From TrEMBL:
Pfam families, A to Z: Y1_Tnp (PF01797)
Molecular function as annotated in GO: DNA binding; transposase activity
Protein name: Transposase IS200 like protein
GO biological process terms on file: DNA transposition
Ranges for domain Transposase IS200-like: 60-138
Source organism, top-level taxon: Bacteria
Amino acid sequence: MVYEHIYWPAGFLITFSTYGTRLHGRSNGSVDRKHNKFGQPYLPENEFRVNTIRKNMQQRKVTLNPCQRDIALKSIVDICAEREWNLMAAHVRSEHLHIVVSGKQKPERMMTEIKSKATRLLRKSYPEMQNLKIWTRHGSTKYIWKTEHIYDAIKYVLYEQGVPMSVYHNKSLR
């Protein structure tokens, strides 16, 4: 349901990873359901936790190849156009992706729809992915309240992720 009279944030930074690639307790940091407040530090390194999670995984981890990344990116562009969301930037990497988007829908719903669309297109093109969990259970949905912070998020997504992989940038935002 859309409420025109409610103040909406400038946008959202949505991030999620592929299954089995960003395990809680890794040395480069992660968050979980109980440790996910703004400004709170990452979970401490915990090799026992990482090994336990790895042992309990139901399948192999999913790493996207260049063609699969392009398919995932196309699905993001398509769903944003279909839903009339303003896609500002997206960067699909081998093990995770970032999206800067705005729209009058909660970012959790956007993330769910993006994952669903990407999963359908990947499974259609790659039958061997038919029975795989492709994405993690949830992800990160950060509200961006100020327009000037949108540009910081876009810069982060496009230029601070390492070598560019499958990238979308809305050129009208220069």
